[in-house]
Each structure stands twice: as structure tokens, then as C-alpha cells.
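REQUEST FORM: STRUCTURE PREDICTION
Request ID: SP-0412
Submitted by: Lab K.M.
Chain count: 1
Length (residues): 158
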Amino acid sequence: MAQIESGSSGGRRVNIELNLVPFIDLMSVLITFLLISAVWTQVQMIQMGSSFYGKKTEESPPVPTPHLDVPLRVDVKATGFVVLIGKQVMPLPKIAGGVYDEVGLTAQLRRIKQLYPDKVDAALAVADDIAYEIVIKTMDQILMTGFSSITFATGGPP
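STATUS: Completed
RESULT:
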């Protein structure tokens, strides 16, 4: 430890010990913070610098594909399927024997895929009391019809 000795003429020696451990801890935290913030500042400067000072190219902004923002949702309820595309609602009740109409769901999803060929996302809302097997079969039907990005929600369809 560091110590300070003073040679006073009063005959008493003053010995002061400084505890440098808290100071070293504080400095290590400050240096770590400085290094972390400096790295992020540098990355931000590189990204901004390339956009301001880089080559300018005459590119037109990409044209958004029509109907990609139309939401597609498949609700799995105790009474059957409900397919929602935009504001259009297509209920598919259970068929004879209380079985979910998977063939009808596939037909509806294929028809939607023909209307919106570039659409790849779909949402699946499932009630809590639906069997896991039905959920997996429904996801398979959605994937087989060309909707590769599925958002999944539980807690019951709204």
C-alpha cells in the first residue's frame, strides 16, 4: 500500500496509508466503459462515413410488391378453422364426425397463394384447448401451400 510519512518536528511521526483498491476498481470500470463506448462510436462513424462520403449510385428505390402487407391469419378454434385474408373472413367449420376440414383449408390457402404469389408470411392463432396434433397438421398445411414464414400465437384467436 502507499503511505505518506511526514517528518514533523513535534516528535510524532504521521503515517497515513491509502487504500488504493477502490481507486483501481473504479479505474478498471471506467476503462472498460471507455473501450465499449469507443467501439460503438467507431462502428457508427464507419457506417455514416460510407453513406456520406462513399460513391453515389443512381439507384431507384425498390418498388414494393403489391399485396405483401395484406395480413393472412389462420385461426384454429374448437368449431373449426377461420381463414382471414385482409378483411375477408372465410370460416371452415368441422366436417362430419367432428374432424377439422384440412382439405378445405389447403384449398383456401392455395387460392390465396394464387391471388398473392409473393406473399410468404402467415399468422396462426390457436385456442388453448386445441390438441397439439391439430396445431402441427395446420402448420404443415400452411407450409405446404407456400407460406414459409409462420407467426404463432396462443391464448385463443381474437
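NOTES: The two ends are 68 Å apart (CA to CA).
Reviewed by: T.R.
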